[in-house]
Amino acid sequence: MDVSSISQDLATIDGQIEDILRALSNGFQKLEKIKDPNRQSRQLDELTEKMRECKRLIKEFEREWRAEESKNTTSINKMLNDRKQSMIKELNTFVALKKRYAGSLGNKRSELFDRAEVGNGPGEENVFLASSMNNQQLMDTGDRMMNETDQAIERSKKVVEDTVNVGAEAAAALKAQTEQMSRIVNELDSIHFSMKKASQLVKEIGRQVATDRCIMALLFLIVVGVIAIIIVKIVNPKNKDIRDIPGLAPPVSRKLLWDHQYYR
Asked: Looking at the UniProt record for this protein, which Gene Ontology cellular component terms does it annotate, in alphabetical order (predicted)?
C-alpha cells in the first residue's frame, strides 16, 4: 500500500497491524515445533492476545478511514477498503489456525486427564480409562495418589529441615570466626601499643645515656685539668703563672702571713 497518499495516523495503524500479522506468522511457525502441551498452551495464549490486538487495530483503521473518506479520492478509498479486507482475511487465517491447534491441544489434555496408572510391582503397569473404572478403583487410585503426595511432602520437609540445619551450622561457624577475628584485632592493637611504648622508652633511655656521657666527659676533663695543674706545680713550684690550688699551698706562706700580722 502506498502510505504517501494516506494520513499519518492511518499509516501508523497500518504499520502496527503489519507488525502484529508478521509476529502471528512467526508465532504459529514456532508453535508447530513445540511438543510440550503446556508450552503449546502458553504460546497459543500469547498468539490469541495478539489476534485480539490486531482485531482492535483493524477496527480503529476503519474508523480513521471512514472519518477521512470524504476527503479522499475514489481510488484511495478503494485502496484502503482492499487493504482492510486483506488484513481481515489474513487475520481470519490465523483465527482458523488457532482453533485447529486449540482443538488438538484439548484432545491431548483430555487423554491425559482420562488416564490413570496403577503399578502392582516393578515393571508392571495397568492402564485404565477413568470412564471404565468403578467407584472402588477410583477411590484406590485417589488414595494412592494422596499417599504419594504425602510422601513427597515429607521428603520436601526433610530437605527443608536439613537445609535449615546446615544454615544454622554455617551461621554458628561464621559467628565463631568473626569473634576470633575480633580477638586477633584486639591483640594486634595491644601489640602495636606495646611496641609504641617500648619505642618511646628506648628513646628516653638513649637521651639519658647521652646526658650521662656528656657529664662523664665533663668530669673527666675537669679531673685531667686538675691532675695537669698538680703535675705542673710539682715540677715547677716557682711558676707564678699558675695559681695555687686550694689546700695544696706550702706551709711557708702561712708563716709569712702570720709574721706580717704580728709586726703590724
From this structure: endoplasmic reticulum membrane; ER to Golgi transport vesicle membrane; Golgi apparatus; late endosome membrane; SNARE complex
